[in-house]
Please model this.
Amino acid sequence: MNGVHDLGGKRDFGPIVREDQEPLFYEEWERRVFAMMLTAAGKGVYNLDEFRHAIERMDPVHYLSSTYYEHWLASIETLFLEKNIINEEQYRKRIEEIKNGMSVPTSENPELKETILRVIHNGVSSERKESTVSPRFRPGDRVRVKHFYTTKHTRCPQYVMGKVGTVELYLGIHVFPDSSAHGGGEAPQPLYNVRFEASELWDDEAHEKDSVYVDLWDSYLDYA
Model:
């Protein structure tokens, strides 16, 4: 989605502050949201691309003024409502019950627990080696990123749209997020690592020796 969430390559947002010994979670609720996200995904309520798109649909002011795990919580709330896991009335009622001292329900599911722990430690690959789709491009090919606007989910950042780069690596066939986020199935496509000269992206403001590497799906690209 082309919107305020797409901050890659943007200027004037200030320096990135790195914190020594940064904790995994600042508050206990963040730990809970982390667990909620993985549990719901593990149960098949949504996939990662749907989850990302729900974050992209947050109100822009809310998005920019909230924290990382607030984004996760907003996405979970949106998807639970849209998928009829819970309705608005039930949601508000449960909030009030917990505010008034009701304990948070818990359950034990050892199999799901093991699955989630395995995902945390090993991740989940989006590669689909069984696909018979063939790559159009090879390392060394010059490519231009298509310039397009969409209100749907995309993993193509705005700052590389219309720019020319060089294919560095072919990364295999992977789930296409632009389809997966909207119920269109995995629709696997070739994925490439593309190198852009910094001067191509930011003109004279860039250092002449700097480069940026971006992973891009086949349908984002044309021959330059």
Observations:
- Strands lie at 142-145, 164-174, 189-197, 211-217, 221-223.
- The helical segments are 28-42, 48-56, 60-65, 68-82, 88-99, 110-122, 177-180, 198-202.
- The chain has a mean pLDDT of 92.
- Residues 82 and 185 are 18 Å apart (CA to CA).
